[in-house]
Amino acid sequence: MKIAHGSSRMRAAAVACAAFLVVSQAHAAGDKLRVASKAFTESVILAEMVTELEGDAGIPAEHRAGLGGTRLIWNALLAGSVDIYPEYSGTLLDEILSNDPTKAPRPEPVTRAWLEQTLTALGVGMTEPLGFNNTYAVGVTAERARALSLGRISDLRAHPELHFGFSSEFMSRKDGWPTLRQRYGLPQSNVQGLDHDLAYRALTSGSIDATDLYTTDAEIRRYALVALEDDLHFFKRYDAVLLYRLDIDQRFGSKASAALRRLQGRIDPQQMQDLNARAKLDRVAEVQVAAEFLNKGFGISLQKAEPSAKSAIWARVLEHLTLVGTSLLAAILLAIPLGIFSAKNRRAGQAVLAVVGMIQTLPTLALLVFMIPIFGIGSVPAVVALFLYSLLPIVRNTHAGLTGIPESLRESARALGLPSGAMLRLIELPLASPLILAGIKSAAVINVGTATLGALIGAGGLGQPIFTGIRLDNLGLILQGAIPASLLALLVQGAFELLERIVVPEGLRAQRSV
Amino acid sequence: MPSLDPTRPILKLDSVSKRFGTSAALRETSLELPTARTTVLLGPSGCGKTTLLRLMLGLLRPDTGRVLFRGEELTEQALQQARTQMGYVVQDGGLFPHLTGLDNVRLMARYLGWSEPRIRERIAELAELVKLPDAILARHPHEISGGQKQRVALMRALILDPELLFLDEPLGALDPMVRADLQADLAMIFERLRKSVVLVTHDLAEAAFLGHELVLLQGGRILQQGSLSDLLTRPAAPFVTDFVRAQRSFDSGTVSR
Q1: CB contact under 8 A, A418 and B99
Q2: Which residue of A405, A407, A412, A420 is the best one to mutate when testing the B interface, meaning the one whose CB has the most B CBs within 10 A?
Q3: What secondary structure letter does DSSP report for A135?
Q4: Range of the domain at A146
Q5: Most buried among A187, A216, A474, B20, using CB within 10 Å?
Q6: How many domains, chain A?
Q7: How far is CA A122 from CA A36, A90, A240, A451, in A?
């Protein structure tokens, strides 16, 4: 495992702990092959094909679509919570395997044998390329290409007046614009960074002349673009392959990996571009796009019916509520005692508040990624993350509610002869209850929003349609997630206001409105 | 009610002192509270009278010296038990806002597991004593007047029938009319209960009206202990005379009962 390379004992203990959790989780969910994809259309379509092909081979498979990033999905593969996912050779070499310290010296150029050996050592297998190379390209409109007779990147040298607009990622990558310009000796000085989607619009409106794109982008068709030939072979190859855990054949029989190999060399760049366009431009569901391709190429007919939009939304709402409810309940059970502790022990209390405050500042996605080695992917790490985020508002408000009780009341209670336990139960907690409840309420409302990010690690919920919608540029789909999510937030808010009437003592409610 | 020996002090302070930071709130003080009498701790702000009261209640621990309740030292362990024998009314009543007046009053009785009929009977008795109708008791503290709050607080302090009753400026926050009313009622209540009472005030008229024994403090020391006439006719220090004069000039009508 990746994190096992650390030397300290603490780390070893953490790894042992993580390994245990992963193993126990793997057993629990061991009956299905888990296919995953990254959060972009092409990856989802490919993973959907794999899922269908495995199903065709009689192996039950499920697809966790749109996980939030390369490192995340790779770690999930190593940890065993993902069995198969589509990857690109360039990403594998430059991003995933670039800094693995245990590996044998890397030959230059990389040989197939070295790559296989390295992956095998990690328990990972790789198929042959699927048939297309989705790499960077420089794109111009077909119209402009004709007018200036541009066919190759080298042709750009003759037109120093051209205005380039590149995505900010391309502007800063080491295989991006600066080195591209050097390699080809490009003279253009009018170059700006801008958002990828805006770049296409700027291109068609003529305010820029060229931008970076991927060779299988649906936008190539949409905006009638031409990808200029990389005549100096500057861009790395990003051949699509499938990565899989080598243990799938043990677990599901040799048909499991055989099903994957059926896709080898079967998808050419034009086909992939069409499939992407079908999903992104024609708004056909990725499941459907994959099924059509398999039907045509493999004679496999679609097995599962798409659930209706209504039941799909409802299922997402339930997933969402489960994420929020479970994490909130756990947070309440820990945070209220923590808040009481921090109110009663001034110094230790400050430390507790500082720690839960620090957790709050961690970016959500970073926290989610951090948890993959420990909890895998799916709802468990999402619940844990939401639980951690819920702690601060509840701990802080419990602390504030208890320390805000006027000294005269505290003294009255002590003078009555109430022992501290009874004083807490009968006097202090009821007096602090409006603030504690407000803390729980804000934790719940924030949770409803944050839980949408759970979709990035395969936890489902209302984030799923939102991120799919963003990926497909499909406003309807985005709204299918966003509207229920906001309604849910309002509902939670309302539910807590009702709860307030039950939980908060009458004397405190009236007093606040005076 | 436990049998009390009226000749023995119910509470005794033995060379007690207390500092807050560098300032001495109370210097080496000894004092005996007579049983079944009303003792008034009197003096200007910052004289140490509230500190003295809090030491008696065990809300503060003395730096030196001992506090003896019925002849036994008031240690941390003895405190919990002793407090059920002490009632305490703070200046603003100290009523718990989340509870009705009634629930404030019966809190301790319920906590100690008294039967409901016994609680009801005791409350009826006390309500009559402090002249508080049931309808007022059913309200929350923010819905009743300052004087009513003090009556509820007094009921709460008396519910367990304590031997010793402490009142920290119970009339301080009330307007004059309410104050006069409650003053008269308190005098009657103390008379009827015949409990040992400790009252803190900075008002000489109130002290004279309610107390048998006056204890005048200044700068963390007891200047004089005695009756009003002792203070008037045999002042132990020039400050005693000054204090009496200052108060008389404002309030001459009510100084003598």
Answers
A1: no
A2: A412
A3: -
A4: 136-227
A5: A216
A6: 3
A7: 18, 18, 20, 32
- Which of A412, A422, A427 is closest, CB to CB, to B88? A412
Q: Is A358 on the interface with B (CB under 8 A)?
A: no
Looking at per-residue pLDDT, the higher value among B34 and A395 belongs to A395
pLDDT in tens, B136-149: 999 999 999 888 99
- Please indicate, yes or no, whether residues A142 and A113 belong to a single structural domain of this protein: no
- In this model, does residue A243 exceed pLDDT 90? yes
Following DSSP, what letter does each residue of A30-73 receive, concatenated?
A: TTSEEEEEESSHHHHHHHHHHHHHHHHTT--EEEEEEES-HHHH
As a whole number of angstroms, the distance between CA A153 and CA A234 comes to: 10
CB contact under 8 A, B108 and A418: yes
Mean pLDDT (whole number) for A288-292: 90
Q: What confidence tens digit (pLDDT) does each residue in A194-205 have? A: 877 778 888 888
The answer, yes or no, to whether ipTM is higher than 0.90 is: no
User: Which residue bears the tokens 């969402």?
Assistant: A320
CA-based nearest residue in chain B for residue A429: B98
Q: Does domain B9-85+164-178+195-252 have CATH number 3.40.50.300?
A: yes
User: How many residue pairs from chains A and B have C-beta atoms closer than 8 A?
Assistant: 68
Position A379 pLDDT exceeds 80: yes
Residue A402 has pLDDT above 90, yes or no: yes
Query: What is the longest distance spanned by two Cα atoms in chain A?
Result: 95
Using CB atoms, pick whichever of B84, B98, B166 lies closest to residue A417. B84
The answer to whether position A322 is within a domain reads yes
pTM, two decimal places: 0.72
